[in-house]
Amino acid sequence: MDEIVIRLTTLEDAPTIAALAGQLGYITPEEDVACRLAELIQQANRAIYVAAYPGGDDDNAPGVVGWIDLYIYRSLLDNPLVMLGGVVVDAAYRGKGIGRRLMEYAEAWGRARGCAAVYLKTRVDREDAHAFYEHLGYRNLKTQYAFRKEL
After folding, report:
1. 31: pLDDT confidence band, cut at 50, 70 and 90?
2. In contact, 8 and 49? CB cutoff 8 Å
3. 88 in a domain, yes or no?
């Protein structure tokens, strides 16, 4: 785990980001991820980091094994917050401290931008994720419904 590097994502990471999202059940074509990534990495109030082993495929290192998507959320009702658009670590690398490192980056990124807190949502059935966040000092604020209407 010591050799893991946390770095800003590049467009070349899109296939792995899409594959890792698929591990959580979010099946998104690589092309769609690449298009979104190209737009998102240009935004000043957003950061997408990946956790990677140096070398990647060149020396049989696994390359990117996790990612985290961060953005600043501003509203009338609260001070600016760091929102997690998503975070995932490859199932084969969970429990090695990689998720903790990604969350530490989220917190540092938010502090550097004057954010009051990190805010995230997780599905009710992801009990392992709930335990992970609570272990890091996060607390569950509420249970709510999520609504969506296609436009």
Report:
1. very high
2. yes
3. yes
